[in-house]
Design a protein that fits this description.
With 274 residues, this protein is of the alpha+beta class. The protein has helices spanning 7-10, 13-36, 41-61, 69-93, 108-133, 151-154, 162-173; strands spanning 220-223, 245-248, 255-259, 265-269. The protein has a four-stranded antiparallel beta sheet with strand order 1-2-3-4, with no helix packed on it.
């Protein structure tokens, strides 16, 4: 279930200020449009921008923005095009005292407020394009980093795997804390990183009955957007730092089968990666 947390927004000063200013700019433009008694496509542009700003805020509060970043950028491009057209219309209305040609009468004052609201909004949207469109580890991309995740939020609740329990039992019997990252992983319903697949075995532990098991191919590289510490009760999870590059098998499910640069394999939460 998606959980809302205001910390994701309040702890990032850039996101907090830009979202508040964008909402204020929209309110100014909305009030001016009502005063102008306009009809037609101007209202569609107004509603479109409201849905866009509210949608961005919701994605930030639920910490799911990274999963829909490209969609947001596409809608921002559409919005900038719409707002630019509306600015041309509003500036034309403010050019003189007699605007009867446009069918609205003398609307110089509300048209000026309409243009001012959209000018502020388009500036914010252009800033968002630069920040959201940049890589997370770049200078501009760091402004959109969603911090404020506490240790409880970073550790999703899920069941442990059968393979992990077996590995822990063997380690305890041997009198040491042994964690096998290459042991077969039987995914539960919540960990569907790679259903039906088995991690490759080390040469010394290969069993004849497992000789025909498929070998996983880590064909894609992903970059960590946030730091994550594995659940100590589940040896199948991997810990990583923000900016780490990991290799994954594919993007299916909420948990991905991954391999770190040091060769350690395990599973990682998908919402922590671009």
């Amino acid at each position: 279930m998606v959980q809302f947390s205001g910390e994701h927004l309040t702890e990032n000063l850039f996101l907090l200020i830009t979202t508040i200013v964008s909402l204020a700019a929209w309110v100014i433009a909305f009030g001016a449009l009502c005063a102008m008694r306009a009809v037609g496509a101007s209202w569609w542009v107004m509603i479109f921008n409201l849905l866009l700003v509210v949608g961005i805020i919701v994605l930030i509060l639920t910490n799911t923005f990274s999963q829909y970043r490209l969609v947001v950028l596409a809608f921002l491009a559409v919005s900038i095009s719409y707002v630019t057209e509306q600015l041309s219309f509003a500036i034309a209305l403010t050019a003189g005292n007699d605007n009867s040609y446009y069918g609205y009468g003398n609307l110089r004052a509300p048209a000026g407020a309409y243009a001012a609201g959209y000018i502020i909004l388009i500036i914010i949207e252009i800033l968002w394009v630069f920040v959201f469109g940049s890589e997370p580890n770049s200078y501009l991309g760091q402004f959109g980093h969603l911090g404020g995740l506490n240790s409880v939020q970073q550790q999703p609740h899920h069941g442990t795997t059968a393979g992990a329990g077996a590995a822990a039992g063997v380690g305890a019997a041997a009198g040491g804390n042994v964690v096998s990252h290459d042991a077969p992983i039987e995914m539960t319903q919540e960990k569907t990183a790679y259903d039906g697949a088995v991690s490759p075995q080390s040469p010394t532990m290969t069993h004849p009955s497992m000789a025909t098991s498929p070998v996983l191919e880590y064909s894609e590289r992903v970059e960590a957007l946030h730091e994550y510490r594995a659940n100590p009760e589940d040896p199948s999870e991997l810990s990583f730092d923000r900016g780490d590059i990991l290799e994954i098998v594919d993007r299916r499910g909420n948990w991905w089968q991954a391999r770190k640069t040091d060769g350690t394999t395990g599973i990682i939460p998908s919402n922590y990666f671009a």
